[in-house]
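Incident review: delayed structure delivery

Summary: a single-chain prediction request sat in the queue longer than the usual turnaround. Root cause was a stuck worker, restarted by the on-call engineer. No data loss occurred. The affected request and its eventual output are reproduced below so the record is complete for anyone auditing the incident later.

Affected input:
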Amino acid sequence: MAGLLCKRRKKGVSDLQEEGKNAINAPMNPSTVDIHPEDTLLEENEERTMIDPNSKEDPKFKELIKVLIDWINDVLVEERIIVKQLEEDLYDGQVLQKLLEKLADRKLNVAEVTQSEIGQKQKLQTVLEAVHDLLRPHGWTIKWNVDSIHGKNLISILHLLVALAMHFRAPIRLPEHVSVQVVVVRKREGLLQTTHVTEELTTTTEMMMGRFERDAFDTLFDHAPDKLSVVKKSLITFVNKHLNKLNLEVTELETQFADGVYLVLLMGLLKDYFVPLHNFYLTPESFDQKVHNVSFAFELMQDGGLKKPKARPEDVVNLDLKSTLRVLYNLFTKYKNVE
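Output delivered after worker restart:
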């Protein structure tokens, strides 16, 4: 009898799996997606989402995951926490707790280790409430909840991490315009129905940072790229007029200001003072050293009466041309008549 029950149970699961595959392979939805048996065991009106396998192979999607994993591991290096797979390592709230505590510099009142599902969800609830308190005032749309994170929903986890990275101005460069195809399986009147939707994970860095005010460089890049070379040529002439005094010459704005050295030296030349070498790295090697240099140059600019640059130091280090142009144009506007 046990063997018969076992066979019947296997057949039921197999039938459900076939039902799921048939729904996915329906003429209206030609894409083929592997449905696991547990993904088809749905209650009436329940739904489940899966990322289309083709989207998982998208280079920008892979890059997004890698950048976020590297960032988490960098933040938590002192905790000796190593994240390898987002769904498996973040679902129980333990890593998310440590990450938020480190980023926000505050301690959460939660149990350190929880093995039970109830305990894990309680921890997640506390962590996510703290996240929401930080993000909601800045207009972030909350696209995750306790059940989706604990259910290892990668889309929800990515939305959460992107929001945290942007809110805390993480020193990383997220790939822009990352979208994935998501298969949504619903059970209606006993039958599985599938739909395909496009889920946008990232837009542009500026939009995600909340900087919706546009300036001349946004317009230049979007509507007058032909004039970009003229602007670059003018800025190169301006910076070389001063850097040539130190026998230095710039030919590529995108790369030669990325380590911050030329920015620091340029500020000294424009304001006619010597910058002590112990204040910055003359030959920076690491990302952090380059960010230090650019940040220091920004401080010198503010000391000189300029507003705090709209660009982030990390953006300049990451070779973001628009950010570099903004910084140099501010200098040009104030110091163009300095000999």
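Verification: Residues 1-33 have pLDDT under 50 and may be disordered.
Action items: add queue-age alerting; document worker restart procedure.
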